[in-house]
Amino acid sequence: GVGDRILMLENAFYSVISPEGCASILWHDSKKAQAAAAALKGTARDLLALKVIDEVVPEPLGGAQRDPARAAADLKAALVRAFDGLHGLEPGELVRRRYAKFRAMGQWREGAAA
User: Does the pLDDT of residue 114 top 60, yes or no?
Assistant: First the structure.
C-alpha cells in the first residue's frame, strides 16, 4: 500500500487481519466477523473517505469475477489515469507528495478523523 496513487476495486477489503481473525481476538468469537469488518473500515469507500486510497475502481455488476475482461479494462483505464497524473513530475516532487500523503494518514482529533 505504498505508492504515489493507491487504487482499489470497489468490492475489495484491505486489512492486515481478516474480520474473522479480528473478531476472534477482540470478542473471542469469529462469528462476530461482520461487526469486526465494520470496525476495521477496510472497504474501498471507507478507505477513500479516510484518504488511505486515491480512487475506487468500479466493478461490473456482481463483482469483477462476473466479467473479468470488463474489470481488467476498467482497471487498465484507472491505472492509465493514475500514471498520466504523475507523468512529468520530478522525482523530488513525487517524493515530497508521497511523504506528505503518508504523514497525513492516521491523524486523529476528538470526534473525527483529521
Answer: no
